[in-house]
């Protein structure tokens, strides 16, 4: 003999099939009263979850924190109540789901053989059939009390999440749509606050600038900014001045007078994710963001010519005051900075 021949076929199993033990019915499978009792237990747990979620919100507004913090057993009452009630809400949903699966869902054993990674049309059909069978075995369609109480508990859990969002701070309102720029405000260099005249700039030059209001020596009678308010205002109002040949500029309709002798002013904040930009290519009139390489054509109204930025750079309209210095004629006519959900 040249060797032992082993009989194989696609129906052979890798190991002997030990078989499945005989299925034993549960009390809820044979006793309608036990089934109804289990259904009420599950619904009660889901209802308690909804109650505890509501109590979480009540505790949020009831207990004081800060200078007059309420205490409970030597601990912050707010923290104890929020953690306790929210934990109980989650616990009751979990316990209800376990009771549902143990007492009401089908408990028949299923054997599934492994198969190749690629799925055939037949396999996909079987997967859909198995999903439909699972829905049928769960009894969710014929147990409206369980289904509706679960939906109510899950919906109630969203209440604490909504309430907790309040701690993120006040809504910005229209603050993201405006800066401190206004008509007549002078444009000054961002380092020393030096005022700028058109003849101070050469063709091809870029200057980082700010509104004069941030420099006490120059801004007379303007509001003062300090601390975080100052930093936020400066971040939104930062601009760049560039000078190019007037013949190279292609202004949009209505922007023909937004520049002064080829000098244009744009927001310094990239419209992608808000990086400060000032990488200037004199010959192409392109401004490059160092973070993600968004590129804007400043000769063509700050239009995006490359990269992930979704919109052009906002432009600040310029003029010259009676002393010959560059000034803004208004605030930006559109929000500066990166795009967000309220912005098209």
Fraction of residues in helix: 25-40%
* End-to-end separation: 80 Å
CATH superfamily of the largest domain: Rieske [2Fe-2S] iron-sulphur domain
What kind of sheet is the major sheet?
Answer: 5 strands, antiparallel
The gross shape turns out to be elongated
What is the rounded Rg?
34 Å
Global structural class: alpha+beta
CATH fold annotation of the largest domain: Rieske Iron-sulfur Protein
Output the number of helix runs: 6
Please trace the helix and strand order, writing H or E for each element.
HHEEHHHEEHEEEEEEEEE
Strand order of the largest sheet: 3-4-5-6-11
* Global mean pLDDT: 86
Number of domains as seen in the coordinates: 2
Name of the CATH class of the largest domain? Mainly Beta
Weakly predicted, low-confidence segments: 1-10
Characteristics:
344 residues; alpha+beta; Rieske Iron-sulfur Protein; 2 domains; five-stranded antiparallel beta sheet; four-stranded antiparallel beta sheet; 13 strands; 33% helix
Please provide a written account of the structure.
By secondary structure, this protein is of the alpha+beta class. It has two domains: 27-110 and 133-168; 175-328, 3-layer Sandwich (Rieske Iron-sulfur Protein), CATH 2.102.10.10. 33% of the residues lie in helices and 13% in strands. The protein has six helices and 13 strands. It has helices spanning 27-30, 32-62, 77-103, 121-138, 144-164, 227-237, and strands at residues 71-72, 75-76, 187-189, 206-211, 239-243, 263-267, 279-281, 286-288, 295-297, 303-306, 315-316, 318-320, 326-328. Strands 3-4-5-6-11 form a five-stranded antiparallel sheet. Helix 2 packs antiparallel against helix 3 (77-103). It is elongated and about 95 Å long. The protein starts with 26 loop residues before the first helix and ends in a 16-residue tail after the last strand. The relative contact order is 0.09.
């Amino acid at each position: 003999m040249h060797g032992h021949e082993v009989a194989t076929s696609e129906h052979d199993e890798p190991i002997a099939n030990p078989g499945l033990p005989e299925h034993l019915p549960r009390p809820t499978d044979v006793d309608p009263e036990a089934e109804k009792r289990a259904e009420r237990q599950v619904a009660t747990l889901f209802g308690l979850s909804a109650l505890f979620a509501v109590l979480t919100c009540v505790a949020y507004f009831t207990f004081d924190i800060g200078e007059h913090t309420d205490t409970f057993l030597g601990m912050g009452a707010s923290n104890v109540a929020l953690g306790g009630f929210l934990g109980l809400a989650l616990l009751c949903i979990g316990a209800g789901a376990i009771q549902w699966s143990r007492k009401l869902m089908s408990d028949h054993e299923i054997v599934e053989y492994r198969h190749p990674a690629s799925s055939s049309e037949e396999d996909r059909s079987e997967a859909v059939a198995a999903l439909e069978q699972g829905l049928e075995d769960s009894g969710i369609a014929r147990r409206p009390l369980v289904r509706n109480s679960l939906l109510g508990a899950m919906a109630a859990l969203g209440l604490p999440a909504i309430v907790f969002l309040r701690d993120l701070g006040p809504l910005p309102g229209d603050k993201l749509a405006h800066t401190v720029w206004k008509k007549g405000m002078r444009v000054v260099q961002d380092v020393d606050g030096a005022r700028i005249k058109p003849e101070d700039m050469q063709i091809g030059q870029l200057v980082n600038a700010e509104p004069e209001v941030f420099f006490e020596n120059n801004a007379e009678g303007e509001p003062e900014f300090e601390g975080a308010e100052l930093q936020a205002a400066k971040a939104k109002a930062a601009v760049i001045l560039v000078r190019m040949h007037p013949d190279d500029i292609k202004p949009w309709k209505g922007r023909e007078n937004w520049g002064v002798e080829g000098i244009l002013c744009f927001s310094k904040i990239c419209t992608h994710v808000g990086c400060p930009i000032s990488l200037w290519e004199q010959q192409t009139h392109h401004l490059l963001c160092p973070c993600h390489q968004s590129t804007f054509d400043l000769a063509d109204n700050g239009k995006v010519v490359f990269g992930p930025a979704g919109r052009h750079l906002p432009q600040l309209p310029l003029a010259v005051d009676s002393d010959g210095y560059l000034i803004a004629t208004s605030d930006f006519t559109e929000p500066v900075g990166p795009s967000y959900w309220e912005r098209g």
